[in-house]
Amino acid sequence: MSDWDFSPPPESELQDREVLLEGTHLVGKRIALLVTGSIAAIKAPLIARSLRRQGADVVAFASSEALRYTTVDALEWSTTNAVVTQLTAAAEHLSDDNPFAAYVVAPATYNTINKLRHGIADGVVTSSVASAIGRMERGKTQVLIAPTMHGSLHNSLLRSSLRHLQTMGVKIIPPKVAYGKNNLPPEAEIVTQVIRAVSNSPLKNVPILVTGGATPVPIDNVRILTNRFTGKLSGCIAEELYYRGAEVKLIRGQGSYNPPSYLPHLLINNYDEYLQAVIEELSKNNYQFAIFSAAVADYQLKQVFPGKIPSGGALQSIDLIPTAKVIAEVREKFPNLGMVTFKYQENITHEELIKIAHQRLQQGYQMVVANRGEEQGKNSEQVAYLVTKNNPPQKAIGKEKIAVAISDFITVRN
């Protein structure tokens, strides 16, 4: 028996084909979505709407084979633009009057990929991409393809074509490999790669290290001391920097946040691993900036108990000693590294928080992101203040906006 009482849904300000913006990375960008004859074409309308949620204006180009699996109506509804299904005297494949920032072939079949590699332009999709490659070679657009086919079609011919296209400058979106097939990746991953491709941020190709999550310390072989921080903010920061084209590496401690597969990251299990990973990563790579949002353990046991302490009250007390301050060691070992650090406090005033942040700035950090447990947004969002030496503290509400503000600061400093 259903629990639904048959009440109508509440009214929404969004019109039928409108989407709720999740970001602005593609605002003002025209994106051509080129759909080829794979069963995965049924997902093309979802890709179109995901692109629009970042502000893109999407136009679909569909081959006749693609329309076996999706429809003109579905593509037009999801893009809010007329669908290009054939080339006319308007020369739709050239798009001279209103050029595209990127062309995304998703799904890209075996047949289409090999045609593109050999310059065959015999239909709506292949002719449009042929023109797009010419624009790409002049620095006027980006071309991305998402290979999608059964594993038996992943042969030496396909690999040769993919390598050749990549050498030319075409960006290959890695498939989601499962059950012997190259499947279309999730819509969010495709959109992320488009955002990254069209980014003209000064952070493009800049190496940046981000840390986040908790760094537990052991009590015995079973029990740990940790904290409640999830690592979500570090994920928002790393993803925002990745959108902008930075070469990001996330060192992730314990927490509920799981980074997307495309984001380079390293999972650490405890404080000792964290300290070692940070120093090693900074030593072997020429990072220009590091953002330390990890909730690093302040104390560790004077002596870790061997094995498992018996239950029933055997553990009466533990002796704690301070851990080494990771950011202080980093500051000493890497004096030219741009550093953003974090300071969390409770049971103090706003003025005291800002004073503590300014005191930390004197230790050689470029920014301190400070927040209090008592201060939250109207929807319980995290509220933080970005404190620097030469400007008033900047207030940011919500993890996404904090991530954007930090990224903007690094952009200016770069």
From TrEMBL:
Keyword vocabulary terms for this entry: Decarboxylase, Flavoprotein, FMN, Ligase, Lyase
Pathway annotation: Cofactor biosynthesis; coenzyme A biosynthesis; CoA from (R)-pantothenate: step 2/5; Cofactor biosynthesis; coenzyme A biosynthesis; CoA from (R)-pantothenate: step 3/5
Catalytic activity: (R)-4'-phosphopantothenate + L-cysteine + CTP = N-[(R)-4-phosphopantothenoyl]-L-cysteine + CMP + diphosphate + H(+); N-[(R)-4-phosphopantothenoyl]-L-cysteine + H(+) = (R)-4'-phosphopantetheine + CO2
Domain of life, per lineage: Bacteria
EC number(s) given by UniProt: 4.1.1.36, 6.3.2.5
Domain DNA/pantothenate metabolism flavoprotein C-terminal: 204-410
Entry's family note: In the N-terminal section; belongs to the HFCD (homo-oligomeric flavin containing Cys decarboxylase) superfamily.
Protein name: Coenzyme A biosynthesis bifunctional protein CoaBC
Source species: Hyella patelloides LEGE 07179
